């Protein structure tokens, strides 16, 4: 359930999406807010101008939070974003330990706006060589 305060911060994320579009990038914008609504950081999509397919605002903010905020502080932040984070961004948000994400447009709604834009899944084969990989990975977690 979103609140009037959430809507205010979502409107800022939407404005950041417009900034991205005006600079020639896909129209996505995001911000991180403290529990009191103070904006901690803002980003917009720069995938085209940076020539970096990972330059999504959600990913950039999650990386910033993991690098710049104490884990306890990150765990209290909310990300406001113009569109629901993609799978890549969602994974990084989870790793950064953010408390909550509030978005304006769902991935399903986005696909209705830009049909046919999805890429086919990349085939994956595995698991394989379990004993070998376990020998490399397991000592890290012990």
TrEMBL record:
Name under which the protein is recorded: Cytidine deaminase
Top-level division of the source organism's lineage: Bacteria
SUPFAM superfamilies listed in its UniProt record: Cytidine deaminase-like (SSF53927)
Alphabetized InterPro entries for the sequence: CMP_dCMP_dom, Cytidine_deaminase-like
PROSITE patterns per record: CYT_DCMP_DEAMINASES_2 (PS51747)
Domain CMP/dCMP-type deaminase: from-to ranges: 4-121
A single MF term (Gene Ontology): catalytic activity
